[in-house]
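user: can you give me the structure for this one chain? tokens are fine.
assistant: on it. calling the predictor now.
[tool input]
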Amino acid sequence: MLISLILDSGRVRLLTMAYLEVQAFERYQIACRAGGAHYDAGTRGTFAPVDKVAGVVATLQRAGFAVRIDPGVVAVVKRQQEDDAALTAAALGRVEAGPKLYPFQVKGVEWLSGRQRALLCDEMGLGKTIQLLTAAPTGPIVIVAPVKVKGNWLNELAKWRPDLQGVVLAGRDSFRWPRRNEAVIINYDVLPPCDAEVKKHNNGVRIMKSLGEDTMAECVDFPPEGVTLIGDECHRVKSSKSLRTQRFKDLAKKVLARNGRTWGATGTPLMNKPNELAVLCQVFGVWFESFGSWPRFLRLMGGKKLFWGGFEWGQPSQEAIECLKIVMLRRLRAQVLPDLPSKMWQIIDVDLESSTKNIAAAAEAALAEAGISLEAAVLEGRMGAAFEQISRARKALATAKIPAMLEEIETYEEEGEPLVVFSAHRPPIDILRGRPGWLVITGSESASQVEAAKQAFQNGDLKGLGVTIRAGGEGITLTRACHALFVDLEWGPTVNQQAEDRLCRIGQSRSVLIKQLIAPGTLDARVQEILSGKAGMIRNTIDRAAVDG
């Protein structure tokens, strides 16, 4: 039984050279799927991606088939392998030249760099952004991310990919393709209309902006050759019926048609039902490499269509897990713990209204007029009218960050990850009072209430705990969580560190990720910078003393 691999319109096609009996044909189909080949209903042919040819040949041979490979296919595969090796070498070169990566992140870069389509699904806090940016080849990149992390992507671009110019797009009709050595960052909510919408509303004609030589970049139908499309928090395109999913899928299809890459990143590829995972695989173009068909997906995921509609899901088979491993890389914090420090910090940029920024700017001006430096005010606690104005401004800033805090909380609740929220001011914590699955510690509670809240959290009875830094910064253990969110900080760096250590203490089996909500370019950011610098100096001094002692 001979199978031939030939070139067909630039693709590698599999041809059966003789009639296959039912059992042989089933064996052939299983081998094709296992190797990464898929059936194209439009052309009624079975095709293998170039980077999967070696795997397809191996699975066919193991299934008892003889394989003949056309010389043209050999040449294409060889070029692809050389290109992949060059991309991997370039990515690892960036690893050597750039900031230090942890060993598991280096492995992630190696895994990503040779793949056209992939899902990076490391657990939250393991640096998916860094791995994606380091692995991405030099050239145009489109990053689609939630609004709240667009600023973080811009900051990480500057740190990890100084060869790329980061551009944040905002507002409807703002989308454009990146130009050479450019990375554009846009949020899911303002993606351009997909082809189906255009045909419906514009009689099939897409309106192009007239910008001379930039027109091609402005037209959605013409992505640059080899562009990389990254979907961050890609579980947001889990519903096949949502407009957001349809628009992203349309972009991905155009990117792949131009020899580009589609990479998704999420810590929760399966949030509720297995069919959401199927949608993700389809959106990022890894469906045929992984499961191949809906009936097979149902079988492997233990699914059964119900008489009255919908599906009932059982336990996934081991074969389903192996299918996912073909296209998805996932590591847990517990698995890579030896690579991680006991604490990691992450800044989340928050954009505030002009009125709040003006309050903070006026307070800083009053402090300067009083002849007091902000550093002295923060670290020495200078009192007086100007200092009181600064304190009121900081409270206003903390209050204004409540929507960003709630959005972050919702993400953790969706992922089922316990969270401790800290704030120097009460408004952000008070708003959590009465939230389902949450309790708070603000200093107004009795000792027995504080103990009950702590025990409820540690026992797994709560989704999260809201704590004012001074009320809960000492004497309690919150090691069930390895994630803390600081809405703002107390004046003293050691007080903030004590709050962090509620999670990072004996009994904690995971590395602790500490997120801080910061309004860039404001008093908020300057206070954070002063406190972080002082805290770093304290840590370095104490750590050195411990080693020397």
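assistant: here you go. The longest strand covers residues 2-8. The CA atoms of residues 62 and 170 lie 52 Å apart.
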